[in-house]
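Work Package 4 report. The design task specified in the project plan requires that, given a folded chain encoded as structure tokens, an amino acid be chosen for each position. We show below one input record used in the internal validation round.
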């Protein structure tokens, strides 16, 4: 006699999947924990046993989306011929049609919702946002160094400019102007990188 194990996701997976869908569409503050529990089909005790609080569930959501965004970039970067192409891949993925939301948007939205964190939970949320933004900055600095730049101050300055341009691309895309703004931002990034590789 053989037995089969259920393939139904457990409470942790259902909570994260439901929270990800709701947070990305309706916002973090607007979604109450009771709604998450109801739509996930999970008891309140399971939330506290797995994540501990809504804030920790938000952190898990942001980390999960960050991992997805990094994987999206890595797949594009692996196809790029050089460091310049890997930088431009950060701008290319803004146009990706993926769920739960466009790359970069979930973290910007969370930063807007928690501008002045007042509790440990809110500070943990902002830390998750900062971690993803730090990844973007570090990726830019690493790839700029890969292009042959050696002056640390110059690398940091260019990385900051590109990060600001990337933020603008994501923000405009969140307002519904995905294709035109993403292409414009990419073109501006190409111009900046062109000045680095061919300053004449």
């Amino acid at each position: 006699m053989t037995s089969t194990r259920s393939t139904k996701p457990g409470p942790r997976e259902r909570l994260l999947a439901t929270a990800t869908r709701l947070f990305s569409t309706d916002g973090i503050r607007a979604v109450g924990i009771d709604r998450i529990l109801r739509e996930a089909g999970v008891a309140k005790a399971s939330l506290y046993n797995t994540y501990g609080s809504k804030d920790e569930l938000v952190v898990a959501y942001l980390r999960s989306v960050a991992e997805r965004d990094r994987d999206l970039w890595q797949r594009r970067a692996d196809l790029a011929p050089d460091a310049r192409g890997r930088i431009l891949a950060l701008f290319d993925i803004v146009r990706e049609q993926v769920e739960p939301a466009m790359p970069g948007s979930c973290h910007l939205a969370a930063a807007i919702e928690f501008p002045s964190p007042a509790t440990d939970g809110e500070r943990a949320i902002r830390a998750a946002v900062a971690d993803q933004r730090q990844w973007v900055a570090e990726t830019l600095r690493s790839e700029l160094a890969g292009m042959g730049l050696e002056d640390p101050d110059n690398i940091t300055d260019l990385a900051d400019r590109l990060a600001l341009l990337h933020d603008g691309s994501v923000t405009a895309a969140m307002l519904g102007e995905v294709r035109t703004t993403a292409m414009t931002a990419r073109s501006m990034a190409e111009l900046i990188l062109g000045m680095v590789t061919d300053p004449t």
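The first helix runs from residue 11 to 26. Validation will be extended to a larger panel in the next phase.
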